[in-house]
Prior knowledge:
By secondary structure, the protein is an alpha/beta fold. Helix content is 27%, strand content 19%.
Amino acid sequence: MSLTNLPAVTPIPPEIWLDIFEKVSRRPMNSLDTTCAPWTLGQVCTTWRQIVLTNSSLWSTLIITWEPPRASEILTEHLRRSAAHPLHIAMRVPTRNNDNDDDINVVALTSRFLSMDLVAQQSYRWRVIELVAYSDIDIADRLQGKLPLLEEFYLKKSFGQGAGLHDKELIRTFLEAPKLRKADFRDSQIMEVPNESIPITHLGVTMNTLMDVGYLRSYASLVELHLDCYQEPLVSPIRITLPTIEMLGVRHSIILDALTLPKLGTLTVRDCTPKSCEILEKFLERSRCRLTVLSLLEGELLAKVDLTRPAFRHVIRVTLPIPEMARTTMSKLSTPGVLPSLQIVTAMVSDVQFDTEGERELEAAEFIAFLKRREGLKLLRMYCSDPDFAALQDVGLRELEAAGLAVTLDNFNSNHDEWKWWKGPYWFPLVTIP
């Protein structure tokens, strides 16, 4: 066949290329790295270069993890290419005292301040902002009245440092953004929202004491709440009702004693004390809520709580911590009448648990046996290492998949803390049954 007789190749429409490019460029490790997308996409051919240079959406995410040579020049060009598109910004804020940046030389630190200044000048285009800092963040005075598009903000303080005076000013400035919907400043202290008409739906925050729980009344539109307390309390001095909360994550179970949540459907509790079981059961009785997602991340609490209570009757997804109390909880979850609506199990495996010989091989087999006993399971979500996943496949997981059980593997942290700032926050995931 001659070349002239070959069928014509249908050109790929530019909008298809753009969709592919947006997926490739969505969350770069460092937007100032010109050896990665989207910078490199425009070097392939004239068509690709035209698409890259004429679509500002490809340049609307700006993640700065380190400053290369000519950082300000590269950043300026990146911002120019983003045109007027709303921005998703994630960056580490430089510190002036430099106590924790001994490895950063003066030139590099100066570059960081210049980058921060350039980004701050674009605050009127910020839609999402993620900041991580070693110390107080002194930029609020450059942002007031200049956040018309801001929908989400996340503030992460390194090494567990709490909020300083400037941090509080910055948080207050963010909370005044008229379109704000999601805010996570768990390394800082809760404060009243300045304008109760701003419908913030997602909040991650820490109280200094349980007396601060009253501040939550000012967040009238909350749907999802992640709550911690710096001073671990023994008792709750007050109690409030939050009628809009549907999803809650707490580090200390005693926090439940301060809340009544009639619409709650998703609950995560991370600790277990001698009173945790009693506190949880009284909370559920008082709230009269109907849970559909239950994550008790201490196996001891999952083993103790009465899962036949009416509040658990409609739970379709449960988290199973392994190895903590795994045999006890698997036996309990296999009992008739326990979580009758269960369809999804999220297994959180700490370290390498199954990929060894002897007793751990037996634990892997017991876990597979538990999955087989739980008739009606449709999805297994595994948070574990690759070796553990392979070990489970070897002892029967492949057969369960072949029989129709959907299985997903994810080694990203699902405890709703220790999230990596440049990869975004971790709100409760939306999990659908296949």
